[in-house]
Design goal:
This protein is an alpha+beta fold. It has a domain at 2-107 and 129-153: 2-Layer Sandwich (Heat Shock Protein 90). Helices cover 34% and strands 26% of the residues. The chain has 6 helices and 6 strands, in the order αββααββαββαα. Strands 3-4-2-1-5-6 form a 6-stranded mixed sheet. Helix 1 (2-11) runs parallel beside helix 4 (110-118) and helix 4 (110-118) runs antiparallel to helix 6. The chain starts with a helix and ends with a helix.
């Protein structure tokens, strides 16, 4: 789901895509911001229609399920979303889910997801911000003492360090790096 939504940002002509994935206990917050072409109100309404896809965007595809699938998922899992877009300025999509909810889908292998996003063709910068924190206690005690672990990575940094990220050997190195960082987040 995140892959399709971030791909939309890249395909919207964005030179900058920012993806934030934050977990606090079992609650996941995801935000995708871009400086792409943006949408007016009519385009936003069409983007939320599962039986609409932008002509020419995906040859042979008759439906566009990215945003409609997200809406269905957050509704079923008692989550929420917001979509803000301005024509010519870009789009910001955010949503949250409780991963402990029976209808919440697994987020999958985030390291692989992030590497996949970095490998899309095009001239764009992708910045990934990832954080993880324990759930707040019901009494609110000690919230200031809870450790938040995080990392930030950009496509340009990764390519500067490893070379072309789409090359198999560099892709594998990037995945190993992100797997290590993800493991350190889970130690919270």
């Amino acid at each position: 789901m995140i892959l399709d939504l971030a791909q939309n940002s890249i395909e919207a002509g964005s030179s900058l895509v920012e993806l934030s994935v934050a977990a606090r206990g079992s609650i996941w917050h995801v935000e995708i911001r871009d400086n792409g072409c943006g949408m007016d109100d009519a385009q936003k309404a069409s983007a939320l229609d599962p039986f609409y896809t932008e002509p020419g965007k995906h040859p042979g595809r008759r439906v566009g399920l990215g945003l409609p699938f997200l809406l269905q998922t957050v509704e079923q899992a008692d989550g929420g979303y917001s979509l803000h877009s301005e024509k010519g300025r870009g789009t910001r999509l955010s949503f949250f889910l409780d991963s402990a909810h029976v209808d919440s889908p697994p987020l999958g292998d985030l390291a692989e997801l992030f590497v996949d996003l970095m490998c899309y063709q095009g001239d764009y910068e992708l910045i990934i911000q990832r954080s993880c924190a324990p759930a707040a206690s019901a009494e609110g005690e000690g919230q200031g003492d809870q450790e938040i672990r995080s990392y930030e990575l950009s496509r340009s940094e990764l390519e500067e360090t490893l070379g072309e990220i789409a090359l198999v050997e560099n892709r594998l190195l990037a995945r190993e790096l992100l797997l290590d960082w993800e493991a350190s987040l889970r130690e919270v």
